Amino acid sequence: MLSLAFGLPGTTEWIIILIIALLIFGSRLPKVMRSMGQSMNQFKRGMNEMIDEDERQEDDAKEKEKEAKA
To answer: What is the pLDDT of residues 18-44, one digit of tens each?
Structure first.
């Protein structure tokens, strides 16, 4: 059965694809994975900064409402 032509690759096809990928990208793979990890960390850091800034703005708005009522 030709699983590559009619659906998702099976286990043996995935193993062959991984072996070929390791042969082609083997020497560059650690660099690629390291840079992907750094990118993920930067993305998470940026998201956390945005959330913190949003929370600070909400707190400032609540304080201004309290001052306006008083």
So the answer is: 999 888 888 888 888 899 999 999 999
